[in-house]
Specification:
The structure holds two protein chains of two kinds. Chain A has 14 helices and 14 strands. Chain A is α/β, with parallel strands linked by helices. Chain A has two domains: about 250 residues, Rossmann fold (3-Layer(aba) Sandwich); about 90 residues. The termini of chain B are close together. The chains are: A alpha/beta, B alpha/beta.
Chain lengths: ~425, ~190
């Protein structure tokens, strides 16, 4: 079970979301459904790959410092030096040494870095001057605490996802998102306070986590694959995409080297997936020899252009691909914004059944924002049919006195249907 | 029109109160003892006749009724909320009931399917705690369905839902199916049947 506590985020004053299996969030437009989706997405993903992010950041900073230092020392104005990236290689060496050896003190680390710089410069006939200054800068970078980095990257991730608008509109209150894996307070995966550009990690968060969140904001992500696989100019356009969509497209292209156990799990999953989608997609997404993503229709044994695919089919193929390339696996979180978009009610029922089976048979957490009575009812009925109805949690968002409140309506979902019925009744 | 009495079934004629009796809760789902509202206790029929042929009792719906026109009704009374009913169990019960009629009356399945209407009557007022296999009734969702049915020009009993995924057996096991709360059954279906 996953728990997310949100306060003062976007339009949401307070929300407490319990994810037991499938979580449905309903409410009028502008009441904060996507805010909840983004909060869950950020809470699960913000610490992802933190070690490699830190290393990459340290590397870039060391390279920048050394570039400056070399430029200062390069009084010969040797044009050849432009063709050598001395600083890249030294930065790599310093970081490798730093990671492999535990230095007892900053002094020991300084001595080692100084020695490395001297050896490297002598090997490459580089004049050295002011080496103390360079060492000092490198040590400053290496000496930053893990927590400083964690706060920096987690804060930046939230701000990127929320496009720098995470703090509650019209207030100066700190935004807080807490992510727990159970109701046990000790199992806090992360608790983050964000105020402007500053993030603060509260308590001692779990650093290693296996689960991942994938957020399907729009079914047209499939059409955006062309940006990913296209020209440099198209790839630049990709940078303008939202973080969830950019990550989704990366996952669609992912080809992983799996461990033996993961491979076995994937084979088992594929059998289940084939059973679930066999009467729906009649084909699958794949990467062709040129690395381009394409949909192959197994009935006509032919490639079908994304632009010629039924809009409704896209959501099914997206999910199928994520499962088939092991991007989506047990304990992961799949977030889908308005899955009913482009789907006839008959297919909404089919999609609801597919999501219920993915949860039940593959152990994936699912969070859905929906405006469709067909879809929400189908989730309820299918969960009962697949004997996992108690894994369903239901939330209703509404605005009260300018504040959006999230109510747990799992034990009385009537308010969801009543709100969806009223517009029809008024006609 | 005087509706037909099948002689072999005569001992099983009973009123709706008895046929819809829920022995667990000791209550009749339908309180109706009118003499002209009698149908066969199909559970009793199944008990007696299927034991002869199969050696054990088939699952069976509660009520069976044949009109003089030849149209027949199989009725299942379930003193449970809609969302508490197990649809696989329900489908099997209907399947067994149709088989019992085929065997007892020695007629082809397609003939039974061509004349039989199945009605499942449940009780949305009998609230029970939710479990992994149930969901709660939603009056607002039902209103939504009713409104959609009205827009689709469904009128009378045809405006009511056909839940539990039973429609897929229409034409195969039965001619038509209705799944309704007991209040709707009492209000709109009694006059159609009797």
């Amino acid at each position: 079970m996953l728990n997310i506590e949100i306060s003062n985020v976007g339009k949401i004053k307070k929300a407490s979301i319990e994810m037991r299996g499938i979580t449905v969030v309903a409410g009028l437009n502008g009441t904060g459904k996507s805010t909840i989706a983004k909060s869950i997405f950020s809470a699960v993903n913000s610490k992802k790959n933190i070690a490699s992010k830190i290393r990459n950041d340290q590397y870039q900073d060391i390279v920048a410092e050394l570039q400056e230092w070399f430029a200062y020392n390069d009084d010969d104005d040797d044009e050849l030096s432009l063709f050598f990236n001395y600083e890249d290689e030294i930065a790599e060496r310093i970081l490798d040494k730093y990671e492999k050896e535990k230095f007892s003190s900053i002094e020991a680390l300084s001595n080692e870095v100084e020695k490395m710089l001297e050896v490297y410069c002598s090997e490459n006939d580089i004049l050295i001057d002011n080496i103390d200054e360079a060492v000092e800068q490198v040590i400053k970078i290496l000496n930053r605490s893990f927590n400083e980095y964690l706060e920096f990257f987690v804060g930046r991730y939230y701000q990127d996802v929320f496009k720098n608008q995470i703090n509650r509109f019209g207030t100066k209150k700190k935004s807080v998102v807490e992510y727990r894996k159970s109701e046990d307070e000790k199992k806090i995966v992360s608790k983050v306070e964000i105020e402007g550009d500053t993030a603060k990690i509260i308590g001692k968060p779990m650093i290693t986590q296996q689960e991942n969140a994938i957020y399907i904001e729009t079914h047209s992500a499939l059409d955006m694959c062309e940006e990913f696989q296209g020209s440099a100019r198209q790839r630049i356009r990709m940078n303008k995409m939202t973080v969830p969509t950019k990550e989704l497209i990366t996952y669609l292209f992912a080809e992983r080297e799996l461990s033996f156990a993961q491979q076995q799990q994937l084979e088992a999953n594929k059998t289940i997936i084939a059973g679930i989608v066999k009467d729906v997609t009649h084909g699958h997404l794949q990467k062709n020899q040129n690395g381009m993503m394409e949909f192959v229709d197994s009935t006509i044994k032919q490639k079908v252009e994304f632009s010629n695919m039924s809009a409704g089919l896209k959501i099914f193929t997206l999910i199928q691909r994520l499962l088939e390339n092991y991007s989506l696996k047990a304990s992961d979180v799949l977030i889908v914004d308005e899955p009913e978009v482009n789907l006839h009610p008959k297919w909404q029922v089919v999609l609801a059944e597919l999501l219920v089976r993915i949860h039940k048979e593959l152990g994936i957490y699912i969070m859905i924002n929906s405006h469709s009575p067909y879809f929400i009812r189908a989730i309820e009925v299918k969960m009962a049919e697949y004997e996992c109805a108690l894994d369903g949690t239901y939330y209703f968002l509404e605005e009260e006195n300018g504040e959006c409140i999230c109510k747990d309506v799992s034990n009385n979902r009537e308010v969801i249907y009543d709100t969806l019925y009223q517009p029809l009744n008024s006609l | 029109m005087k509706d037909r009495i099948i002689e072999d079934y005569r001992p099983f004629l009973s009123n709706l109160s008895e046929i819809s009796y829920d022995s667990e809760h000791r209550v009749s789902l339908i309180q109706d003892k009118k003499p002209n509202h009698r149908m066969y206790n199909f559970d009793g029929i199944s008990d007696k006749f299927s034991k002869k042929t199969r050696g054990e009792k088939n699952m069976s719906c509660d009520g069976y009724y044949e009109k003089a026109s030849g149209d027949t009704y199989l009725i299942e009374f379930k003193n449970q909320e809609e969302g508490q009913i197990d649809k696989r169990w329900l489908k099997n019960k209907i399947y067994d009931s149709i088989s019992t009629i085929v065997m007892n009356e020695n007629i082809a399945r397609k003939d039974v399917a061509g004349r039989t209407t199945v009605i499942v009557v449940y009780n949305d007022k009998n609230k029970e705690p939710l479990n992994d296999q149930s969901y709660s009734t939603s009056p607002a969702f039902n209103k939504f369905s009713q409104k959609m049915a009205y827009l689709a020009e469904k009128r009378g009993i045809d405006s009511y839902d056909k839940k539990f995924d039973l429609v897929r057996y229409k034409g195969l096991l039965f001619k038509d199916v209705y799944t309704v709360d007991k209040e709707i059954f009492e209000k709109d279906f009694m006059d159609v049947i009797f």
